[in-house]
């Protein structure tokens, strides 16, 4: 069984680095996730007793007084209100369902931009302006 300081890579790509005892996480160690997040914890018999998760962008998760996506920070607002989409279904905007973008055009916030005609039309396809 694993004993002492070391690392262990799980089949999911997640890696544990830290103390091991009798084949289990024991003492200080961290899980490094493939998405860049990390969970540092004090472990006892493979179970975290006290820990902290840090997202890939450096934001630390707090289970109390969590101010991410509140009135001052609106990231992930739709996910909080409507729940997460199943894996493989992208949600690129807060609209659900998202707007249908005409082939070859780009959504520019107040309408669609057509690079061939260099014209911006609103979402009802009415002329707004030339680009």
Automatic annotation (TrEMBL):
GO cellular component: motile cilium
Compartment(s): Cell projection, Cilium, Flagellum
Alphabetically ordered keywords of this record: Cell projection, Cilium, Flagellum, Repeat
InterPro entries according to UniProt: MORN, Morn5
Location (main, coarse): other
Keyword Repeat: yes
Signal peptide coordinates: none
Taxonomy, superkingdom: Eukaryota
Tagged with keyword Chaperone: no
SUPFAM superfamilies (alphabetical): Histone H3 K4-specific methyltransferase SET7/9 N-terminal domain
Pfam families, A to Z: MORN (PF02493)
Protein name: MORN repeat-containing protein 5
